[in-house]
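Dear colleague,

Thank you for sharing your sequence with our group. We've completed the structure prediction you requested, and as agreed, I am returning the results in plain text so they can be pasted directly into your records. Please verify that the sequence below matches your submission; if there's any discrepancy, let me know and we will rerun it promptly.
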Amino acid sequence: MHEAGRRARAAGRVVAAAEPGQKDAALYALADGLDAAGAKLRAANARDLAAARERGLDAALLDRLELTPERIDAMAAGVRQVAALPDPAGEISDLRYRPSGIQVGRMRVPLGVIGIIYESRPNVTADASALCLKAGNAAILRGGSEAYHSNQAIAACIREALAGAGLPQEAVQVLETTDRAAVGALAALSDFVDVIVPRGGRGLIEYVSEHARVPVLKHLDGVCHVYIDEHAHPDKALAVAVNAKTQRLGTCNTMETLLVSQAIAGRVLPPLAARLREAGVELRGCERTREWVPDAAVATEADWGAEYLAAILSVRVVAGLDEAIEHIHSYGSGHTDAIVTEDLGRARRFLREVDSSSVMVNASTRFADGFEYGLGAEIGISTSKLHARGPVGLEGLTSLKYVVFGDGHTR
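Please find the predicted C-alpha cells below.
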C-alpha cells in the first residue's frame, strides 16, 4: 500500500500539470475502450455474479453488481460527459484589486491523491476514475471482492487509455488485493492520500471512518422521504412516489418513508397502495395509514429510521407540513427528501427548512445522482457540511487556493 501511495503521488503531479486536452483524450479513449470491451466486461461480470449467487448474496446486492449492456453503455456515456465538461483545474475566480494595488483571486486546484473504497457496483471504477482524472487527481481504488473480475476488466481499459494519452498508468490504480486489511491501510495512508471516499453499506463506511487518518467524504444512510402535501396534485403524487420507491430498490436515493398529509390521505393512499402492491412492495404503516390501507403491516419505531434497500416502504400520515418536516429532522439521514405540492410558498419553506444534501419539489428522489445533475458522474454522495455536499462531481474533487498578482508591490 505504501508503494501504491508513492506511485500515486508521483503520477498525481504529472496529471495535475497535464493540459486539459491530454486528460480529455484519455477519457474519450476510455469511453471507446469500454464500448469495445463490452463482451469482455460482461464475461468478467458473469464470473462475479455466479460467485455472488453461490455465496447467497441478496437480490439488491446482485442488482448493484450486474453489468448489463445498458449499464456498460451508461458507463461510457458518463465518461464522455465528464470529458465534455469544462476543466475546473486552474480556473481563477473572484479576481479583484485591493487598495494596495495587488490583485487577489482564487484558483481551483486538484486535491491530490484520492482513495476510493467501494462495494458491489463496478461502474464506480469507471465513474470515479474519470472524475478524478478530469479534475487533475490521481486515484487509488479498492473495490469489493464480489466485483473483483469486473473491476479488473475495467481497470485494463483505464490503463490502456492512460498510456495512449501519454499519461502515467499509475494515475489510476485499481488494487488487485481482496484483503480487507487493505481498506484500513489505505484509509491510514496519510503521507500519500489526501481524501478517502467510501461507497457502500453502513458497516464499510463506519469501518473506514474509524480507521481513517485523512479526511473522509461520506454518507452513512439514505433514509429518503417523499412528503405528499395537502396541496399536491394526486396524479403527480402517485407518479413521484411510485418512481421514488420502485424505479430501483437498492440505491441510496430510493424513498424509504412516505409521509402523507391527513387532508389528502383518503384521495392518494388507496390508489398509491394498490400501485405499490402491484410492484411487490410491502407497506408498513402508522395507525392512521392503516385506516386507509388496512392490509399494511404495523410500522414500528425502528421502521422510521430504516434504510431497507428492498421492496419495503414505511408510510406515515401526518397532520401537515410542520409534522412532516419534524419527522424528517428526527429520522432522516440528510441525504434526499422531496415534497409534492402545488403551493409555491410551502415548497419554498420545505426547501429552506429541510436540512438535506438534496431537497426536491415535485420530483422523484431518484434524481439525486451526479449524472442526472449534469456532473457527468459522481464519486459519491456526501452528507457532510464541509467542502462538498450532495453528489460529488468535479468541483468537489478540487480545492481553492489564493493567488496574488503584483508588479513589484511591497507592503
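Summary note from our side: The longest helix spans residues 20-36.

Kind regards,
the structure core
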